[in-house]
Automatic annotation (TrEMBL):
TM spans (from-to): none
Gene Ontology annotations for the cellular component aspect, listed alphabetically: cytoplasm; nucleus
GO biological process: negative regulation of cell population proliferation
Ranges where the Anti-proliferative protein domain occurs: 92-111
Family listed: Belongs to the BTG family.
Superkingdom assignment: Eukaryota
Protein name: BTG1 protein
PANTHER family: ANTI-PROLIFERATIVE PROTEIN DOMAIN-CONTAINING PROTEIN (PTHR22978:SF40), B-CELL TRANSLOCATION GENE (PTHR22978)
Encoding gene (name): Btg1
Lineage: Eukaryota, Metazoa, Chordata, Craniata, Vertebrata
Amino acid sequence: SGAAMRTEISTAAAFVTRLLRAAGGIGEEQLRCFRECLQEALREHYKHHWFPLVPSKGSGYRCIRINHQMDPLIGKAAAMIGLSHERLFQLLPSELTLWVDPFEVSYRIGEDGSICVLYESPQPGGKTTKALESRSSCKEEWRIGRASPSKNYRMMTVSS
């Protein structure tokens, strides 16, 4: 099953690496090492949680999240090249969700950003895949995702 998830994993790792490269200040050799470490961490993490016949099964387990907490797999790969969690939070979007599923890798920046597909391949059995949303808006979104301030959430207080 290792070969089966190679494309999805390399797509996900390359995407996070591109985000780091775009932020600047990290050398190419470090980025290459980060990408390889992340690929290895994902491969290990997904080993028994990859179900090509039921792609949505285990999706939550394979979801990579940065949401005021650093995803442990990204954190682990970053530690291998000497990047602290603090530095990662400066370099990566503060809200990032990356879904790595059989036949599809997609991401969302921000809690209510649009979901953008990075990789999609037809599933065996000829199920038609859903139409991809306009890619141009998605391509730019990750660039501006960091700059946009987080929305002001109103806290609801419950009084007893």
